[in-house]
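F.,

This is the one I mentioned.
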């Protein structure tokens, strides 16, 4: 039988030991490229924010057509928030840039929508202040304990973001009567979830800070 010779890369992939008996170095996995679909969607979401604000305040802020445009832009950005995270985890596209840019994009989108609605008189300022203060506070809290560990986002946080997005979407639309009331009710639910999940983060941060630091091996 003729002997089939394999090059080093092929032997490494096929786990074949070379004839010489010398070990073959394992092939290093390729680094995740910065320019990937997950990061592109995150950057797209950031880019949509100023366009969303322009549409929101166009025509005095209450022109039905522009409010619909603003709602569509907000909806597209909110959907990309869901998709980019799933793609990053499923296909191993997690990067340091994504870890930093993704929460910034989320807070920029939600914060700009809340502040914009309050400036237009469609949302009470106290609701906007509570939500924005929580987001800023939790971000600072995470940074404060980052050397001791990472506080993962729980299901409550994801539910909070979903309800916030739904409430904002309804309030953005040029609707009145029962629809406007439904938007305010959703926003009140979002505020409750915002406070509850914020307290949960505080508890987790205290436990993380109080836990003994394990020496590095």
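My design for it:
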């Amino acid at each position: 039988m003729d002997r089939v010779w394999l090059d080093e890369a092929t032997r490494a992939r096929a786990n074949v030991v070379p004839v010489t008996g010398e070990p073959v170095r394992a092939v290093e996995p390729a680094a995740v490229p910065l320019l990937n679909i997950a990061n592109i969607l995150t950057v797209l979401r950031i880019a949509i924010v100023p366009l969303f604000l322009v549409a929101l305040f166009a025509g005095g802020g209450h022109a039905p057509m522009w409010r619909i445009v603003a709602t569509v832009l907000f909806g597209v950005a909110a959907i990309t928030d869901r998709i980019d995270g799933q793609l990053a985890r499923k296909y191993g596209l997690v990067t340091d840039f994504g870890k930093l840019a993704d929460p910034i994009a989320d807070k920029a989108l939600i914060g700009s929508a809340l502040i914009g609605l309050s400036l237009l008189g469609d949302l009470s300022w106290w609701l906007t202040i509570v939500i924005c203060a929580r987001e800023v506070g939790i971000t600072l809290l995470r940074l404060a304990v980052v050397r001791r560990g990472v506080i993962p986002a729980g299901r409550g946080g994801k539910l909070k973001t979903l309800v916030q997005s739904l409430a904002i979407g309804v309030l953005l639309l040029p609707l009145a009567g029962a629809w406007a009331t439904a938007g305010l009710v959703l926003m009140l639910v979002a505020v409750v979830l915002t406070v509850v999940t914020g307290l949960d983060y505080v508890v987790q941060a205290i436990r993380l800070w109080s836990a003994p630091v394990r020496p590095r091996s």
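Residues 178-210 form the longest helix (33 residues).

Talk soon.
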